[in-house]
Amino acid sequence: MYGRPTHRTIRPAGGRLPAALTFVAAFALLTAVVVFGGGTPIALGAGASTGAPAWTYVDIGVEYEQPGGPFCLVAGELPTATPLPRAVELAVPASSTPQWVGEIYPSNTASDTQLPYKVSRRGTMDVYSLTLKGSTLGQVEALVPSLVTVSGSNYVVTLDWVAPGPADTCRIAVTLPSNAQIVKTSEGAQLATDSQGGQHYYRVVENVKAGDTVSLNFTYATPAATTETSTSGGIHIPLFWWIVGIAAIVALVLVAVVLRQNVRAAGGPGDEGPGDAE
């Protein structure tokens, strides 16, 4: 079963959505052991400690069922014993539009706090630098350019995430339509369903180093939304118009039969042809 945490909400800038959508966060709930990694310093904020360790986990999720385009959520958690404040970096695909950036509290979402941040472009990524003050969990929520191209009846997803810093565990996932079918797989990835029935295609990578690329590139298709019948010439005609056409033909036949019967009735049984007159 795909772990779909219950404490995260997708929020537009300035507030929560009326119908909150949970997506990413405490990936540590899926891990039995918390591994403390030694790492290098990440971008510092005012008063932040130096020598930041590796993230315990980083969770990258793309949710397509959002107005305005794909919604990308990137969450990271430091080891619980990490002293705060701590400067950290989280990356999303370049040309992003930030919606919410801050620290989160799994046991009390009302305490989730937006934080000041800076964004810098590094290759194909936008790197968000912020300082965690009261929680070891940070998250960036942003709209990103479309990661999907259409190829005939298929949808090709290209998601290449470049780590700005080390992480013990990294999960990368894309939420798909409920009727999606994987046509071309991505190495090490699998399709799973969450407790709400949503479909997620994801993979997990261990021991990610700064600069590593974690990819989820695949192709999926969805069944046609409307019922169609195809002619031998390859032109697709909706079933509705077939029904209308058949009904029109039947109506014309009935009219012709009625008119023929009326003509016969108008002649009468005593009518005589011109050769019968005396």
Structure description:
This protein is mainly beta and 278 residues long. The protein has 2 domains: 27-221, Immunoglobulin-like; 228-267, no CATH class. 10% of the residues lie in helices and 40% in strands. The protein contains 1 helix and 17 strands. It has one helix at residues 239-267, and strands at 55-63, 71-77, 86-93, 97-103, 113-114, 117-122, 125-132, 137-143, 148-151, 154-162, 167-176, 181-184, 190-193, 199-208, 213-221, 228-230, 236-238. An 8-stranded mixed sheet has the order 5-4-8-2-1-11-14-13, with no helix packed on it. Strands 9-10-15-12 form a 4-stranded antiparallel sheet, with no helix packed on it. A hairpin with a 2-residue loop joins strand 6 (117-122) and strand 7 (125-132). The longest helix is centred in the last third of the chain and has 29 residues, at 239-267.
